[in-house]
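Case study B.
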Amino acid sequence: MRATFPHLLHLDIVLGILYPTLGVEIVPPPPITSRTIEIGVEHAPQNACFPLKVTLGNFVEGIERGADTVFMAGGVGPCRFGYYGQIQKIILEDLGYDVQFVLIDHPRFGWRPFFQALKTMAGGRFSFPRVKKAVSLAWKALVFTEELETQRRALRCQVVNRAELDMVIDGALQSLRKVESGSEFERIKKEAWSDLSALERKKENNFLKVGIVGEIYIAQETRINFQVEKLLGDLGVYVHNSVSTAQYVLNTFPVLKSKEKLEAWELARPYLKRFVGGEGIDTVGSTIRYAQEGFDGVVHLYPFTCMPEIVAKSVLTQVSRDFDLPVLHLAIDEHAGEAGLVTRVEAFVDVLERRRKYWKKAEGE
Amino acid sequence: MELYLGVDVGSVTTKLVLMDKKKKIWASCYLKTSGDPVLALKEGLTYIEDHLPRGGEIVGVGTTGSARHLAGVVVGADIVKNEITAHAVAAITRVPEVRTVFEIGGQDSKLILIREGVVEDFAMNTICAAGTGSFLEHQAVRLNVPIEEFGKLALQAEQSVRIAGRCTVFAESDMIHKQQLGFAKPEIIKGLCESLVRNFMNNLATGKTIEDPIVFQGGVAANQGIVQAFRDFFQGKKKIVVPPEHGVMGAWGAAILAMEYAPQETAFQGFEVVNRVFENRSFTCGDCPNGCEVVFLKEEGVIKALWGSRCGKWTPETVGQKFAESKLEEKTDQRELSVS
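Model:
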């Protein structure tokens, strides 16, 4: 079995750690490029949401690299995401690819299919201690990749040499690909932290602070969202992203639950009481949290036609007014133009800067 | 006298403004970009040089518009700013109590909300042509009416006719249909103006509170038919101001931003730029399937700036090396840079 899977930021690194220990060969799809998007757009239904198209492109490119199995997460109903697997399976069949499509659903929708899928994904031999060890290391790696990205967002405006920052983080990510043991992992982690703290910082520290909220895929996948975080960082903005795959995974297990998410839902309650699908509530709750933490603005990223986020967007209009917090909404799909996006982000940062100056002046009087 | 130069290179027109420390405009010009921003810039610079007051010296330059980065390199800008900020700054300078800015240009339109002299919110339409100057120009050609006469004709109409303005192509077929029903030209033009206004309001103003005074600027503000259509839309209840400088507000804003930025020493290249040879070259990088179209600007054979390299591997140095090594230059795609 040679399995491929969709990209989601550094998921390939995490699965690259998990799978060799299980004896399953994985074929990561090549990095997302314009070609990936072209393939996805060509074969997916026109009005499907953008992440479906991109991940479909991943599968086709993975199969071209020699994969005979596709791993995909399902989830019957947070939103249209629940249909992704089923639709992609049919599309791949129609295209004439002879591949096994393993769709893992939430155990809530049946423990039997869940374990069956898990068993296939674990290479048929399902020995609990072995899986546990591999999962634990992969989990730590997932959390670490997210921490690294958090540092990249936060430090971009602070360091003197941005290229060095990218070098440290990309270097750590690269060495993670080869990690095999827990001790090796700890060494990489320690090294990365000391390298990061050794970077030369700028003297001033009153940066504008912008939070990112939105749909899990678009808000995280930098190769799709025109690197909004980098753009903001280059404009001298401190960036924090409220979206995290680790928290998402945690939250799917009833016993664990994500503290962060529960907190966000609680905050969103005065505005949005019910689950509206996807990350709709999280978007609203995280925006309120950013307002309370004194952020200057929020960037809302979502796929064009994403229903949960459109609900959140309407709610955010009121949140933005109540908390006096500017929100920039960016809908992304294959038609989104980079020039227009850059102009809007630049103008948004100008708005935040001028607001700060204005308030400072008003306070001084 | 210390002067500031503001440059706004848009998709359809190029604007330059020469301003003094009191933000007074000494000279301004409004030219067609015609797909060649460098040539338009040179023309504009020549005009400004001819109208430079005696003893005037340029101490700061700001650029804006969709080709702001290119213009910034060619002219030598101290500050390169997006057009939303530039337009807002100019509107606040012209009408300090302004609360809303409508800006309709050649290929995009903007709505800016201002409260107490600070931009609070904005919206920008860059996807669809149906709310922009290009839409009107296209229909004017179809109706065989010079675009300058367009607004005046609309005012002559006694009644209006509703034309679907959601999409440029469908607007055209609807317009033909209305012509065949026997509506006169002025009525159809009035209908077009109203459909543009409707489109602007639907696309940009949904969910936003429009308060007056409204400053209406951009090239399309010259069209009295559109101004009237906006007044009708608000049933005459909102105050709409069209400043006499409406066409060059972006460039004026860029000049004001350059003055606020107050460079120690300006990066302005001088009016000699007009005599220098600029070339736009491009090649498609084939190193990964992204196939980035890398565009670079050469000044007198030296690469000055470069755009479009997503991964960042192409810089003026690496591109220079690439061409020096393989002499690929002859084979490259020598298309002129078109700015959209």
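Chain A has three domains: 2-124, 135-155+158-203, 207-364. The remaining cases will be described in the next quarterly update.
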